[in-house]
Amino acid sequence: MQETMVYNEKISKVIDNVNKVMIGKEDVAILSLVALLAEGHVLLEDVPGVGKTMLVRTLAKSLDCDFKRIQFTPDLLPSDVTGISIYNPKEMEFVFRGGPIFGNVVLADEINRTSPKTQSALLEGMEEKSVTVDGETIPLQKPFFVMATQNPIEYEGTYPLPEAQLDRFILKLTMGYPSLEDELEMLERTSKEHPIESLSPVMSKEELVIIQKEVRNVYIEKNVQQYIINLVRETRNHESIFLGVSPRGSIALMKAAKAYAFIKGRDFVLPDDVKYLAPFVLTHRIILTAEAKYDGKSARQIVEQVVKQTFVPIRKEF
């Protein structure tokens, strides 16, 4: 119990670090930590200049993690992501030089700008926690966290991620524009030196791996598991949804709920945790019918409707 309190204090310090750099974005910081502690990955979809890259850099610096950035372009090759074997004439053998995927926190900037072949090189590592080069499978470092970004406005020259690849991301988030007060404070803070320059690590990589293991042990009751299944099955039967959420989505929602409960200082999951996280976990995993799109409905609206319609379990003794 005492160890859990120490870890919660460290998580709070990470959130405080993010708040020093990202003004008014505490909810995004918490959700990013949810994905990180659940050993998942995040897709950030928003317009340029709202702080997507800065969020990832802040997390990496706060956690004392090795930060790598991949700027995806149409001419990027899979070997630019995974690395390549180079011949060493002195030793007369090939030596593997790892690419940027061998970092702890990896920013996949504008992932939809590159070809599906290169996208798949990154997505293999996300799912399998390893990469295959020259027929050899090489495990990635722990922790391993990918935050991919894409611009929802400009689609010219892009390769949209197919649904099977979108399913690899545990959460899909947006940053949004800051409020007037937040933007004024942002100008004030960055007028001399950027706040990220003065940040110091508040958690080590080793501690993060331990916390990830602790999150797996968070208790989730059968009726809360049933609630997750009911939500997911409802997306498969909804009249406005062409393709519902897969079992991978059920597992992702459970993992995210455990991580969120741990961040909130609990060793058990509440139905409210599932209810709050459902739109972030499920929205990018469904495909709407043509009629729903024609009527102007969004996937987020449909998921929120599903959440409202699904019965929330309540135990009498509570």
Indicate how many domains the architecture comprises. Answer: 2
**Range of helix content:** 40-55%
Oligomer: single chain
What is the helix/strand order?
HHEHEHEEEHEEEHEHHHEHHEHH
SS element count, helices: 13
Largest sheet: 5 strands, parallel
Q: Could you explain the architecture of this structure?
A:
This protein is of the alpha/beta class and 318 residues long. It has two domains: 182 residues, Rossmann fold (3-Layer(aba) Sandwich); 92 residues, Helicase, Ruva Protein, domain 3 (Orthogonal Bundle). It is 47% helix and 15% strand. It contains 13 helices and eleven strands. The strands form four sheets. The chain has a five-stranded parallel β-sheet with strand order 2-5-8-1-9. A two-stranded antiparallel ribbon has the order 3-4. A two-stranded antiparallel sheet has the order 6-7. A hairpin with a 4-residue loop joins β3 and β4. α1 crosses α2. The longest helix is centred in the N-terminal third of the chain and has 20 residues. The radius of gyration is 20 Å and the shape is globular. The two termini are 23 Å apart. The relative contact order is 0.15. The mean pLDDT is 88.
In short:
This protein is an alpha/beta fold. The protein has helices at 2-21, 26-37, 52-62, 78-82, 116-128, 163-166, 180-189, 205-216, 222-237, 247-263, 271-282, 290-294, 299-309, and strands at 42-45, 67-71, 83-88, 93-98, 105-109, 130-133, 136-139, 145-150, 171-173, 241-243, 287-288. The chain has a five-stranded parallel sheet.
